[in-house]
Task: structure prediction
Amino acid sequence: MTPGDGGSRFSEAATIRAAQRGDHKAFDRLVETHYRAVYNTAYRMLGTPSAAADATQAVFLRVFEALHSFRGDAGFGTWLYRICMNVCLDELRRRKHQPLSLTEEDEDGEALDERDVPDESEQPARTVEQRELQRLVHEGIGRLPEDFRAIIVLYDLRGLSYQEIAEVLDIPLGTVKSRLNRARAALRAEMTAHLELFDV
Amino acid sequence: MMNCEQCRDILSGLIEGELPPIVEAEARAHLGRCPECARELAELRALVAVLHELLEVEPPPELRARLRDIPDQAAPSGGWQRARFIVTSVAAAAAALLIVWTGLTHYQGRPNLDLTTAPPIAPSIAPPAEDPASAKPPAVGGGQAPEAPSRPAHAVVTPAPPADEAAPARPTPMRRAERPAGVAQSRGEAMEVAPAPDVEPPPASRVEAEDLPLPAGRTTPSPELTTMNAPRVRRSPVALAPAADGVVDGARPGSLPVPEPLYLDARGSELATATDTGEGSPFVISVMPPRLRVVDEIVAATITLETEKPVERAQLSVSGSPQLELVDVKPDGKLFDGPLRAGQQTVLSLHMQARAPGAHSLTMRLRSTDPVVDTRLAVGMGEFVEAVPPAERPVQFSFTDTPIREAAGELSRQSGLRIQVAPECAGRAVTVSAPDPVPAGLAVRSVAAAAGCAVAEQDEVLVIEPAEE
Result:
């Protein structure tokens, strides 16, 4: 598993070794390969681009500081996802029980929904309904409990296997499957009011 | 027969097609009978489809620049020594080297030294620097000399690990309430422990801490951390080694204060700092590791001495681990012999040359007159690695109908090789792979051959050009 591209043609082993030896260019290559995946994971976990950017920076800071301890027992991607999820879950716990809302206001009282949401309007062949549906699903994910959110993000959005998720979240394989079932059911319940938009 | 609750528990597995056939058959039978469950399955399928189509979002442009700055944010002095600059003697076998003897009789080997009558002794190697910056060592071999410390205050002193612990111990983070002003918290989780073989074995004779007296009111080992400027005497579980010149001998049995072990922590600062925590005035030794990581090249390191009160005479001698040659140090290892001024830094430079890759250590022996301190420290000097020529660096690749320019770019990125593609070859594509690492030079030739081209070397640049007929 590689967060960056789902399976780079080129082995990362040499790059990781170089980065471990202090080669900052090698570290930057690791960042370049993976930061979009980390950012997208954090975006779906935390809800807003600014929080995702901060989390991505925190993730790679931790990676930089702990890279020397990476021994390759787990794949680099698994290790990176584990750090990413830890950062995101830490942030969610820090927020305590504040519900995720894309219309939350920032410190200046400015609504975030227009300022802080990426513009996906340039995506080709996306109808207004499709974009609306994606926005609603994104918000629905944000209302899920964090353990449900994590499993939906890792399995349905990032495409990790059950085994990889078990390693990332440090939970048994069976728990991954049962939690995914419950998480999807919870998300469906969150979307009940908008089911007419789904192509059922 | 399956009921609704049982069916809902396995809908996800049904969508993923991973149910055992018999369970799936039962589920489908139930779904055929139960419109509610069938509708829930349909809605879940639709939801999963939307999830799978959820768009990737593009990170904000400024994020990439923020990420590029991470090495600087994390380590102003460069990342590798933060991670690799190490305390060699955390391992039990070498722990004794880190112990600072405090309150010991100074210059035991020279009992006639009388502080009141001894004449001032000029420094023999390096004078105390009025301006630490002026005493920076020169950059060697392209390396950048580390910054001189403004005021070392990064010492973190931790309880020693038990002597019988084979595993390397790590410093315990200092609790906030216990941390005095000016003492940075250790981020010990990233501390590396160097292999013990590079460290000199402790002297044969030992004094067990348990044999030593404790002050009144302190009868149990203290779990707290000790800090600089905090004189105390404490029972330590680690076996103590006497100084090489026999300071710990039978001259004053029963009166020897228990020393504090010191761990140097280079993280979070540009320095590794050790601080005397015993009786007398605080004494600071800071060590800056060399930045270069090459074998057989001379690299510079800096040692800074600082004391709160003037020291009439101090001696510092150094020695390297077996494969670490100290280039400009006298055979007796003496690097400094002279007075130390209160509150001023004495910056000493030395140059060293690693004869083999790997972690090396520098052992320092400091003796002084006042405040009384008799210290021996071992400091890891980071990892020395051999410089591998780009053409010999390992690369891995798998090209399938890949434009040769792109393939050459990837090999260059992995190895640092400079590669050019002649216009005659530029339009070709290659299919060739190396699942296991191969030398970059060989890889370039393989790629060129796959395109029907050859490789010529011109001024350290590999040129992929048409093969000669």
